[in-house]
Amino acid sequence: MSLTICFRCVRSDRKTKGWLSSPSRRHASTSLSSHDELTKTTRNIGIIAHIDAGKTTTTERMLYYSGVTRRIGDVDDGSTVTDFLPAERARGITIQSAAVTFKWPPGNEGSSSTKSNSSKSNLSHTINLIDTPGHADFTFEVIRSLRILDGAVCVLDGVAGVEAQTEKVWAQANNWSIPRIAFVNKLDRDGAAFGRTVKEIGSRLRGWPAVCQIPWWEGGKGRFSGVGDAINLRALKWVEGGDGKTIQGFSLEDLREEDEAFQAELIKARAALVEALCEFDEELLGTWLEFDDDSMAIPAQAITDSLRRCIIDGSGRVIPVFAGASFRNIGVQPLLDAVNDLLPNPTERPDAEVSLGSSKGTLSELLQGKMIQSFGSNRQLSKKASKPTALVASIEACALAFKVVNDLRRGVLVYVRVYSGSIHRNAALWNTNLHVTERAQRLLQMQASDAIEIPNIPAGQIGVIAGLKHARTGDTLMSYSGANPKTGPPAPLNTLQLRPIEVPPPVFFAAIEPHSLSEEKNVAEIIALLLREDPSLHVNMDEESGQMLLSGMGELHLEIARDRLVNDFKAKATMGNIEISYRESITAVTASHRYEFDRDVAGKKGRAACEAFLEPIEGSDAIQGSSFERDGNLITIRIPDPDDDAPLPGELSAEALSMALVNGATAALARGPRRAFPLHSTHVILTFDPKLDCFGTDTTPVAISSAARFAVHAALKEAHSNNNIALMEPVMNVVISCDESSLGAIVHDLSSARGGHVLSLENDSGSETAFAELPSIDIDRVYAPPDPFASGSGSGVSANGPGQQRHVTARVPLKEMVGYLKHLRSMTGGRGTFVMSVDRFERLSGPREKAV
């Protein structure tokens, strides 16, 4: 006997539409609950995965079942909600992360009879979801989304298993300690192997796979039709060809009549799940002992709570695994339940890291006044800073701008995550990076390209501010009562930084040519918009040719930038061929050069001096003085202790003087003397002696920066004249996925034709992984249900079979990887894929230098 149920997303169309079409009703219901309750029922999650694993398709089903959309969009048709850019719809891939907000289950009324014990899932939760790109060129887009998330769903391709880019995004999630669950997708496709994928999770991601669901194949070897829930001891079967809303639920007793073999496997899965969790969670071990070691008698809620405790720290030591096929509308609703049940709310996450100048701490330490009390004693603080409690009490809100989008209808939209307080409409926001004040004229809650106006964005929520003219990705925005709009909050609060982000160096560049002189200004303004949206794009002017050079993370990255420039923004410009961004480097120590700057700057007298010499980083001696790392170079500042006879110029602090010197040196290193490439692996030593290099009130920060720049320029010219400038090229870390039959041709091509070095060859179940520092998992102890279509004994294809997937890890010069994808596809019959990232810059050998 089976029970046909309507999962909690299934209600009458009339009710669902009514809930959706009345924003005021939604806000009214929210306002009735306290802010604490609202925060506890909020989930800020992201979907991360390798390209083409099914992230956008899964997101589309989530929106449909939660009632946000009335039809299911398709990536191939270009009709999805989150892939709304023309370039995304044309290519069928996600290019920029998109944020959507929905309720699950959609409303508080009613609950599914299939889950009576789990009160958390019966409450309507607000889920702020970010769909991230999977292509390696857009890794920065994933990084800036991950740092503001509280949890993540990692989608895996059930056919391909754990792929190279999956390992990369998983490692990034480890860096931010984000709790994660895994969803094995595409189990309806030929060659899908759930058991093999589970074992790969253990071997390649170095976490213990806790199998919470197992796939249900009709008759053991038929089509994929449902899942077995090892937590709640039930089976769920979806109607073939339907929209996924009507599901048959089977208890263990019902399942005996329906599919006895599957019932036995489900019992085995429950025992393996409990046994695995008992190794990590003492509380569940105690419960297990109370029930006389009977895994079947343990309540479902106890297992759910144990899973939550095991993943809440974000270490990735336990990985709950769920099963489904999003394209066939199978398994998405239980996945949403798992998001509510297992992933944390904003209050359960560690405190956000903040910095005041060079002092670092947590947000709670700042709000308690501890960071202000410990702020450096030699700094100039405001009078209010002597009362830290009163100072921090005036902070109304603190938020991080993690994404900027230029919307053709609404203008510039700034996505923010609020960490404390609440941002209200028309609030004055101080930008601590740019030191400007802007007003939050409109606050929005985004549904990808659609939006709903809201009165405020409370702590723990993700929202959008429309109308900000200056805010960029990574800026910290602060609302402060009684602040002067021009000067902002008193020091040191005006230097507050939330979770700073490092932008990876670009490795490709292309020249942009406006069609006429009159178009130059328009093109420059459009490029400035692109740079606000994507900080991993860089632009600079070539002084010799006068060209604008746009730099990015990869071929596709620059191709998309060109498409947006020409097609979306209608710029009248042409982008040249994609080139490699080389570097220059010092090979020997230079003499010391002193430069005295004495010119009028902006109508004011400017005079300062500075001494500089250069050396390779590798041969640097013990560093004396304060050092700063800039774009692969090291800048050391030496300032002899000033005395009363020679104080620092004007009101400059030692910190401000150091930054002026660093800025001057950075400007000089941006353009090398040999081929105008930026400098790399160069150590700059700057000496500023107040007795010799200071000239009273004429010595300004601008004059100091200029003196440092010209001193470094002089040292670079000397190195060039002595033939001590070498060229360096970017070398990439490349991971190629291919089958066994193509392995020999790929290795030969990399090592002979492309000058690369093969580092490792591994199969899918190999022990080598990107997480070599983590303890390895004994795969033989991991439970995985048998794969009915695999040619092995439940662990995937045989070890030496022709279809075995192999991974080649190599280090290859970037110049040889331009256009490599087409070549790889021709060698592998269209089945090979690869991802690459910058490994290092290496000095060019003689023959390669001549070729450049």
TrEMBL record:
Residues forming the Tr-type G domain are: 40-347
Q: Does the keyword Nucleotide-binding apply?
A: yes
Q: Which residues fall in a compositionally biased region of kind Low complexity?
A: 111-123
Identify the GO cellular component terms for this protein. Answer: mitochondrial matrix
Q: Which family does it belong to?
A: Belongs to the TRAFAC class translation factor GTPase superfamily. Classic translation factor GTPase family. EF-G/EF-2 subfamily.
HAMAP family reported in the protein's UniProt record: mEF_G_2
Q: List the protein's name.
A: Ribosome-releasing factor 2, mitochondrial
UniProt source species: Coleophoma crateriformis
